[in-house]
Amino acid sequence: MPRIQYFVAASLDGFIATPTDDLDWLLQFDGFDGGTDSYNDFMAGVGCIVMGGETYAWLMEHEPGTWPYDGTPCYVFTHHEHRAPDGADITFVRGDVREFTADFRQAARGRNIWVVGGGKLAAQFADAGLLDEIILSVIPVVLGEGKRLLPMKGPTPPLELAASRTLGRGIVELRYLLHPAAGRQS
Known about the structure:
α3 (53-62) links the parallel β3 and β4 (74-77). The strands form 2 sheets. An 8-stranded mixed beta sheet has the order 5-4-3-6-1-7-10-9. Strands 2-8 form a two-stranded antiparallel ribbon. The longest helix has 10 residues, at 53-62. 24% of the residues lie in helices and 29% in strands. The protein has 186 residues and is of the alpha/beta class. The chain is globular, with a radius of gyration of 16 Å. It starts with a strand and ends with a helix.
């Protein structure tokens, strides 16, 4: 069964952005060995993207006039009015992630659903028991403060480490299953 996945990079101390949404600490690692292959392999399995409004606003500010996910349906959870770039398949929604899960699965057409961000949105999926997998690239910097990787309501049961590998420039990619028994293939 297709998975709902949180593919994300975080600092060594568990932040995905600074308090002001600055990503320069991460962008300095663009082009690291294995990073492009990891991303391309991941995207080959993605049929639908889900993101938060702050992530969408950041993309529109930092990549004006472009949409990096052409051909992939995207749902944006937001409380603000936004305009989609021309030709982008974007649906703006409000509400509980559980209300839209069937829509995500239908749009994904048998492929995986990528929760792009932010951490609060991914935590809503996890708290609802809908997040199946976290694919985390640990970036070798310490931010000290910022937007948390996964600000959930409480502790989870132990996650199952499905894979790990070292990539270039000291980056480690970890794949965790949140529902270990459900994620096993027979």
